[in-house]
Amino acid sequence: MRHKEKLISSILLATGGAFVLAGLILFGVNRYEGNKAYAMSMEKIEQVKDEAARRAAESHVPEMNLNLDEVDPEATLDMVPEEPKKVLPVVEIDGYLYDGYLTIPAIELEMPVTDNCDEVNLKYFLCRYSGDPYEGGMIIAGHNYKKSFRKLRDLAVGDEILFTTMDGEQFLYTVSEIEVIDGKGIDEMIDPKWDLTLFTCTFGGQERYTVRCMSAD
What we know:
The protein is an alpha+beta fold. The chain has a single domain, classed as Sortase, Chain: A, CATH 2.40.260.
């Protein structure tokens, strides 16, 4: 009987040790990947910001200089075209497609936002999951790295978030609500009542830490 108890105890200890070792390995890999992603993101953020500033300067269009004494007031109504629907500009830099960059002063985070939400882009940057700042309902995802979206845990209601497009246009948001959603809750994540949603998976990927924001403009 004692031999059987010792055997069970040894098995439990070995199993527990294996879980601890697996956890340490996972933590180490996450930390290594996080540092690598941070270095890559810092390398690209300046390029993205410079390109956004350059495009903003080039996109300035001078106002029309009309001599109102020579213009028929009724005819001017036909001279004003309808404002075209804005489309989020996407710019390629070194093989990556960027929508702009995100700035969150409260957690000292500033990172590029790529246009394609896939494992390749998520490995290094933030990714636009859906929506845009013009139509609303924009969702931005990021990995749960220590120097990236794990910092979302330190945000509080009222904190400001700034999204800058690749044309230099800026959109200011404030944090309105913070929640944890089931990892498979896609319908819960895509909620059009929020102007901006930021999310990252919790450690292990079972849940999604979610920050909901409204436009401050």
